[in-house]
Amino acid sequence: MAEIAFRNVTKRYGSVLAVDDASFTVADNEFFCFFGPPLSGKSTILRLILGLEKPDSGEILIDGRAVNEVSPAARNIAMVFQNLALFPHMTAADNVRFPLVERREAPAKIEARLRDAAEKLHIGHILHKMPGQLSGGERQRVAIARALVRDPAAYLMDDPISALDARLREETRVELKRIQREAGRTLIYVTHDQEEAMSVADRMAILQNGAIRQIGRPVEIYDHPSTTYVARFLGSPVMNILPVQATGAGFEAAAGALQVSAQAQAGVAEMGLRPEDLRVSAWEGGAGVPATVSEVEPLGGYTVVTLTAGAQPLRALLRGQPDIRVGALVGLGCDPAKVMYFGAGGEALPKSAVPSLGGDRI
Ligand code: ADP
Ligand code: MG
Domain segments of the chain: what residues? Predict the structure, then answer.
């Protein structure tokens, strides 16, 4: 069992602030994701947990005990490297046995652990094969099995499936979720892929320049982003964020083309509309906000439509393949309850502070 926590941890490399006053607690058995763009400090956080790096300040705790001075081996945390890390001249079974053989465990124990890991990872039928004869997904599972037999307190994975193709990535992340649930172990997972983070994580932390901007369940963060940075970072296509001006009756954006009647509140600088919350219908004069279609991207199950309302570009995500053509005039709508508001510093304003008065044009 392992609960892993940072208390105000900072790590610098020369003048680079790699981890900036980070605090979090990953619960025992939790699937926790660190999600951020390249160079945001994700790998550094994992190296600090493993003990390969020491923080400049702050505390790292495992099960409530400070481990700043504890060696990596004594922390008993396993890093699962990408599939490339398998020994090419050993069978899958020997690869999985390896950490136990190295520790000189009794052969009966080694075989029992191997069987157990092979069952959990569904690799019993490929144990006799060499890594070169395995698919990418199978190699990945063997690599995880090798970490599993060590019986670590927690696993860390650094962008483990980014090298796989899209189809395999989807399959592997479903597998990972199952394995973590069945193995009942803490798993800390790093990714720069938002779909991956959203789909696997029990909770996640969003990083920006080494600082944690928000921690929560994926859908909670999606629905209630703390800043425009987080709001833009989750969701595809990205959230529409428009500068707004307060009017007597509420707010307007796009040079008056979009009107939201809401109780005026000081400090609202921008509003956010998720593409899937926009409604687009044929323009019949009066229904919704008039907008012109400038781009249509049919994706099969969905269609992304780029529109212009009063010179303001907006993107809408529509289900299926609606009959919408470039150049058409359409009526744009949105449930006012779905509109988000942000202050001048990009901070989200509580919705309760901006109650809608109804009668909205968008
Ligand atoms: P990520 O994994 O999110 O891409 P990293 O943790 O690797 O980010 O890096 C965070 C920041 O720290 C980056 O600016 C990176 O250049 C810097 N950094 C990481 N490791 C080192 C190192 N060993 N020496 C100097 N700078 C480093
Ligand atoms: Mg990295």
Answer: 4-226, 232-353
State which amino acid sits at residue 202: D
Tokens found for residue 327:
């150049």
Instruction: Provide CATH code, domain 232-353.
Output: 2.40.50.140
* Residues of the chain scoring pLDDT < 50: 357-360
Point out the ligand nearest to the CA of residue 41: 1
The listed CATH number (3.40.50.1370, 2.60.40.150, 3.40.50.300, 2.30.110.10) that belongs to domain 4-226: 3.40.50.300
Q: Whose CA is nearest to atom 14 of ligand 1?
A: 39
Point out the ligand nearest to the CA of residue 159: 2
- Cα 293 to Cα 62, 282, 316, 350: the distances in Å are 54, 11, 10, 32
Pairing of strands 65-66, 57-62: antiparallel
Nearest atom in ligand 1 to 19's CA: 10
Pocket of ligand 1 (CB under 6 A): 13, 16, 18, 36, 38-44
Residue nearest to atom 16 of ligand 1 (CA): 39
> What pLDDT is recorded for position 263?
66
Q: Which two tokens stand for residue 229?
A: 């940075």
Its pTM stands at: 0.87
Q: What is the pLDDT of residues 194-253, one digit of tens each?
A: 888 999 999 999 999 999 999 999 999 999 999 999 999 999 999 999 998 888 777 777
